[in-house]
Amino acid sequence: MEIRKLNALRGLAASIVLITHFSDVTGWLDGALGGRAGQYGVMLFFLLSGFLMSHLYFDRKADKENIKRYVISRIARVVPLYVLVVICSYSMHYFGYTGLYEITEVQSLIAHLLFVYGESVLWTIAPEIQFYVIFIGLWKVACWRRGYIYVIVTLVLIILFFSNFPRFYGDFDGVPYNFFHLMRSLPYFLVGVLIGMHYKSANIPLYLRKNIFVFSLILIPLMYPHFSPVSSDAKVRMWLSYEVLFVMAAVFVSVVCFVPDNNRLLSNRAGDFLGKISYSLYLLHMPIIQFINTFEMPIAFKLILFLSSSVCVAYLSFRWIEKPAARLINSFFCSNGKYSA
What we know:
mainly alpha
C-alpha cells in the first residue's frame, strides 16, 4: 500500500535543495537559505531510500528471483535519467558547448558511469547506488536473523564515529573516485532501514497520531547555518555529527509514523505531483539556475521563473524520459512487466 505522505516528503526534500542552491547562486536573501542547507534535503532523500528498501523488501525472501526484480527496479528508477545527464554533460563540453555539469574529461565520464564519483548534485547518486548493493546483504541477513540488523547498524555507526568517517578518495589511473560520500551518508540509509523495518508492525496509539506532529518539520530550517541556535560544529560538519542524524531521524519518524495518513498538508495532489517529479527536479535544476541567473531582472522574478521552469522541465523529464525508460527496462527484463516502486 502506498504511503502517500512520502510523496510530499520527497517533494519537500527536492524543494530544500532547489531553494538552497538558488540562494547560493543568486545571493537571494543574502544567502540566508543557502550555506549548504540543501544537505538536509539530501539527508531526507537518504532516509527515505533506506526506509523504502526495508519496508518493501524485508518481508520477501531474498531469493534469486526477488533480488533480480529488486535490481531491475532500482536500475529502472535511477539509472536512465542519470546516465543521460552524464553523457549529455560530457558530449556538450566535447563539442564546445556549456554542459549541464562539469564533466569535461573521459576519466570523469568513466567515474560517473561507474558510480564512484559525482560532480555537483550528481555526487549523491554514487552512494545511492552503492547502498543498493549493500542492501542486498542486509536483506539476506534480515531473512536469516532479522535481529542481527540492529547489531550491524550499531557496529557501523560506532566504527564510522571512532574512525572519523574514513576518507577514501583519489584516482585510479586518472579515474577519480570518492567513497567518503558513502561513509558519511551510510548512517542515514541505515537509520532509514531501521525505521522501515518497524513501520508495518508499529502499533502507534491513536492518541499519538496527531496532525500537530507535522510541525516537527520546522526543526529542519532551525538547523540551517544562518538560523541555528546550535553553537557546536554540528551546523557546519552536519554529515559528521550524529546530533544532526538524531534530529533528522526524529523529524522523519514524527512525519511518517505519527502524522495521520490523511493529513492535508502532506497527502494532497500537489505533494503527489512534486514527489513524482522530485528526481528530475533534483538532477536538472542546477543548469536552470545558472541559465536564469544570466538575465538582468529582479531577483523575485528570477525565483518565480526558476521554480516554474524547473517544475516544467522536471515534469517533461518524468513524463517522457523517466517513466518510459523505467517501463521499457522492466518490460524487457521482467516477463510480466511488473516491478516494485
